[in-house]
Design goal:
Helix content is about 35%, strand content about 15%. It is an alpha+beta fold and about 290 residues long.
């Protein structure tokens, strides 16, 4: 077939309409986009990555584009490449797409998603005005700059930027301003409040205060290990505290070498992990009962 009679690729390719046409326009302006299903959800992972069989590609704890040819891994699929958007691998998704989403972080933006009237009223009082996009139930406030994405930073307020997607509704009105500290502060977790040491409310076992079977260093080392076991517990703090108290009492509970000062050290370590004084006292008394002390 002579070159002049060969079919042109752009003629064979279906002309984009609807969500795909919107996506191509956004991508041309540098906004990474992806299709959304009915219900504002991204399309499922591709067959290779179904049910995250690939182990999370890319690692969803790290920013970065998806390497799959399909619109896979939600926000990580967002792209500005028109060849990807028009590829046959994405064709079925665009045929079924109900809307377009974009990756705010990839566009160097942050979206404060205000989900109801109360959230909007709060924003007017506490955040600088910026570009505003009306949504079905509230508003999106768009700021210039990126930050971590966190849902539920306060009632009715989500922050969407890096590693997240937001539904494209329209350009909105107003001029976007730089991301303020007031928005960044929404995702900062307050430092945990460590309770002050509380004098143990549980009694020390009766005895003469000396350990007849070991040296004082043995008791000191045992208490240090007990404190460390409690402070390093990744979960199951209640059970860890009880088992630790039980271990200490089983070794030193009958010889009388434990004093109120020793018990206070153990209670303080438990309270630093979130246990209340009542929980500590109950665990101590339960351990004593278990051992018949």
């Amino acid at each position: 077939m002579p070159p002049s009679s060969q079919p042109r690729r752009d003629i064979l390719r279906p002309q984009p309409t609807g969500p795909l046409l919107t996506a191509l326009a956004l991508a041309a302006r540098g906004t990474p986009v992806l299709p959304l299903r009915v219900g504002k959800a991204p399309f499922n992972n591709c067959p290779t990555c179904a049910k995250n069989a690939c182990g999370g590609r890319p690692n969803m704890k790290q920013p970065g584009p998806c390497v799959c040819p399909y619109p896979c891994h939600a926000w990580a699929a967002a792209t500005t490449n028109p060849d990807t958007l028009l590829s046959t691998a994405w064709a079925d998704a665009w045929r079924r797409a109900a809307a377009v989403a974009y990756h705010p972080g990839g566009a160097r933006l942050t979206v404060v998603d205000l989900d109801n009237a109360d959230a909007i009223a709060w924003a007017h009082q506490h955040l600088p005005r910026t570009r505003t996009v009306p949504t079905t139930r509230g508003q999106h406030w768009i700021y210039l700059g990126t930050m971590p994405s966190v849902n539920g930073v306060r009632p009715g307020v989500d922050v969407k930027s890096r590693m997240a997607y937001a539904r494209w509704i329209g350009p909105g009105t107003g001029r976007p301003v730089a991301l303020p500290d007031a928005v960044r502060a929404l995702t900062v977790k307050p430092a945990p409040i460590r309770p002050a040491p509380v004098t143990a409310a549980a009694p020390a076992p009766d005895g003469d205060g000396a350990c007849p079977h070991r040296t004082p260093a043995y008791l000191a080392r045992g208490l240090t290990m007990a404190e460390q076991r409690i402070s390093e517990a990744p979960s199951g703090v209640h059970a860890t505290v009880y088992r630790t108290f039980l271990a200490v009492l089983s070794t030193h509970g009958r010889c009388g070498c434990l004093t109120d000062a020793h018990i206070t050290r153990l209670f303080t370590a438990a309270q630093a992990k979130g246990e209340t004084l009542r929980h500590c006292t109950d665990a101590w008394n339960n351990a004593r009962s278990k051992l018949g002390l």
